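Reviewers of the previous submission asked for a worked example of the structure-prediction workflow described in the proposal, so we include one complete record here. The input consisted solely of the amino acid sequence. No template or homolog information was supplied to the procedure at any stage.
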Amino acid sequence: MRKNKDARPRPPRRLRRRLPLCEGEKPALPLPDGETRPKAARGWLVPLVFLLFLFLTAVTVLYGQRFRQRFVYPGDPPPTELVVARWQYTAFGKFGGTGWSHNYPSSDQHFAQVISEATNIDVKSLSYRIVELDSPDVFKYPFAVVSEPGEMALTDHEVENLRQFINRGGFVVMDDFDGPKDLATLRRDLHRAFPDRDLVPLTIDHEIFNVFYRIDALNIVSPYLVDGEPIFYALMRDNGTIAVIACYNNDLENFWDYIDRGEYPLKPSVEAFRLGINFLIYAMTH
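From that input alone, the workflow returned the following structure tokens.
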């Protein structure tokens, strides 16, 4: 093989210098014939791994800040245009009277967060509050959500506040109840407030399903097995607009709560947020 005349001659092995061994360090053992010692990691590899670690950590923290803020906000909500009220009411039933708190607070936070990202409404992820139905504070928040209304056992004062809330223009989303018994319980207490009205089923062509997002179908898959098809009922005002929408055989709040866990299919999860935003826009514009 012809040698390159311009190549720098390799120094004899005897002229190569080795660093002195540290105290206690043993010299490397010779390798068997044909084997080579692995090369040390290049100088840029360690900084690159460190930067990648910082990037992934930052992404994880930001994602957690966006959704999973698992704490109860200690005090009044921020002074935003919208604050969603979660009603606490007198209840007896299959959950021992605790159904009003189901999916709290993560569903409230996620719903408010998506509203802030999908609309121009001034709202933050902490723009929610628990409000007792028998309190005068109920009239401060015109958009309310009720979880598990099939547990309702309202007092006379709560029934009066419900009547006044609706007569003053408030809007209520009744969610997370299923089965004939739950529906009968809700109808009973609504009838106490409005003896001349009853819940009526809505169809896909109603404005509330097209006011912001166009909802394709109302057979929204429930996040768990229920006995019957989902039906959206409404309690109407005297002028024909909706005052209460009841999501029967469904549970939008469960989808809101679990959106960051990947446990439910994406389409019904997205539809649950789209429905909630439609309800809100309808309430604010009617």
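The radius of gyration is 31 Å. We consider this example representative of the routine output the project will generate in years two and three.
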